């Protein structure tokens, strides 16, 4: 009798569909994401080896002449208007960085995503540890080809990496960076836009979507432009105003920092802010406001990974994320 009862309990448990089992998993040991500048040489080397591997593995999406790194750039470019300039910017990129972390693991990496804390480097961004030619991502680009005004990265582990995409079109080219120079007493790479002083009004926002807009339009955009768009906004580096900006592996250290800043904002009032999600969806074709966003909104991942739901990507300690800073 006892055995039968137990057996039927097990039977009931086994009958739960796999998706529900997944949702019930808990996060007991969140993995720490580290600051690149504070990681050991061995940790940086392990990350870079896996990141180079991602730029060499054949596309999983079946893109011609392309690699897994191109899959990331392509997916970001195709979904661009659905994942920027409104609330989904934060949870979508949180999920996306996690998908990249998984791609690094598929290349033998056992660590976690890392971040470039550009707030610490704002006064002299060109001296940041991330640009090191051996234990970093290489530095600024230089003009090497009179027929291509993009500036090629010629040092570091990605000097031979050739992204396939430029915006949404096939345009194979060498990885490029085009740093903004120091101007009017401000540091190079637009550092003044992500200094501790510049961060004060961003972090002081008290409504999720106002924080999202201030972070996205301010420091987030300044780092893209500072690394990839020189002084004339032409966007001649991959990280510049280019919706295939994930072609530059540095993109993921930038976005892990954006993610960390959101997490820090949530930590100012965790009970209210961890699940706070608001604002309007992108404008409708007739120009009117899109509908208000919801925690039940979908997060498309274009075949790179399963479609997600916003609710599962709000809390870094959720079952699907399970990390800490
Ligand atoms: C793929 O690469 C080959 C050889 O470089 C080239 O001839 C072909 O046009 C490329 N196809 C695409 C779609 O880029
Ligand atoms: C890295 O930069 C240093 C200093 O400029 C230089 O001496 C060294 O040769 C470079 N190493 C590589 C692998 O590019
Ligand atoms: Cu983006």
Q: Which blocks of ≥5 consecutive residues have pLDDT under 50?
A: 1-24
Radius of gyration: 21 Å
Distinct small molecules bound, one entry per kind: 2-acetamido-2-deoxy-beta-D-glucopyranose, copper (II) ion
Mean pLDDT: 92
Q: Which outline best applies? A: globular
Number of helices: 10
Q: Tell me the distance between the termini.
A: 50 Å
Q: Looking at this structure, what is the CATH superfamily?
A: Di-copper center containing domain from catechol oxidase
Number of E-state strands: 10
User: Structural class, please?
Assistant: mainly alpha
Helix content: 25-40%
Instruction: Please give the order of strands in the largest beta sheet.
Output: 1-10
Number of domains: 1
CATH architecture, please?
Answer: Orthogonal Bundle
Concise account of the structure shown:
Helix content is 36%, strand content 6%.
What does the model show?
By secondary structure, the chain is mainly alpha-helical. It has one domain: di-copper center containing domain from catechol oxidase, CATH 1.10.1280.10. It is 36% helix and 6% strand. It has 10 helices and 10 strands. The chain has helices at 2-15, 18-24, 41-54, 68-78, 80-83, 89-106, 196-203, 208-228, 251-267, 270-273; strands at 31-32, 34-35, 114-115, 141-142, 152-153, 165-166, 169-170, 298-299, 308-309, 323-324. The protein has a two-stranded parallel ribbon. Strand 6 and strand 7 (169-170) form a beta hairpin. Helix 7 (196-203) packs antiparallel against helix 8. Mean pLDDT is 92; it is low at 1-24. The chain binds 2-acetamido-2-deoxy-beta-D-glucopyranose (2 copies) and copper (II) ion. Copper (II) ion binds next to loops.
């Amino acid at each position: 009798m006892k055995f039968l009862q137990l057996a039927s309990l097990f039977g009931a448990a086994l009958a739960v569909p796999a998706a529900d089992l997944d949702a019930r998993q808990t996060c007991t040991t969140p993995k720490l994401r580290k600051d690149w500048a504070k990681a050991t040489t061995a940790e940086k080397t392990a990350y870079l080896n896996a990141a180079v591997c991602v730029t060499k593995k054949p596309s999983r999406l079946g893109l011609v002449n392309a690699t897994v790194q191109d899959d990331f750039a392509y997916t970001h470019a195709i979904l661009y208007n659905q994942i920027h300039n409104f609330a989904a910017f934060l949870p979508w990129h949180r999920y996306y960085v996690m998908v990249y972390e998984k791609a690094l693991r598929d290349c033998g990496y056992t660590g976690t995503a890392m971040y470039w804390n550009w707030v610490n480097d704002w006064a002299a961004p060109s001296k940041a540890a991330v640009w090191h030619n051996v234990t970093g991502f290489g530095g600024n680009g230089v003009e090497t080809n009179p027929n291509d005004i993009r500036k090629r990265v010629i040092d570091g582990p990605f000097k031979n990496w050739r992204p396939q995409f430029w915006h949404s079109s096939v345009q194979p080219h060498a990885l490029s960076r085009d740093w903004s120079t120091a101007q009017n007493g401000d540091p190079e790479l637009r550092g003044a836009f992500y200094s501790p002083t510049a961060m004060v009004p961003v972090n002081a926002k008290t409504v999720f979507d106002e924080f999202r807009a201030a972070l996205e339009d301010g420091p987030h955009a300044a780092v893209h432009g500072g690394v990839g768009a020189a002084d004339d906004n032409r966007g001649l580096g991959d990280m510049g105003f280019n919706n295939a900006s994930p072609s530059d592996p540095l993109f993921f250290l930038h976005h892990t920092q954006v993610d960390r800043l959101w997490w820090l904002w949530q930590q100012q009032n965790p009970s209210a802010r961890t699940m706070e999600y608001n604002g309007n969806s992108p404008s409708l074709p007739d120009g009117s406001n899109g509908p208000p966003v919801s925690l039940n909104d979908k997060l498309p991942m274009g075949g790179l990974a399963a479609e997600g739901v916003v609710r599962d990507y709000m809390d870094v300690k959720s079952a699907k994320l399970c990390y800490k800073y």
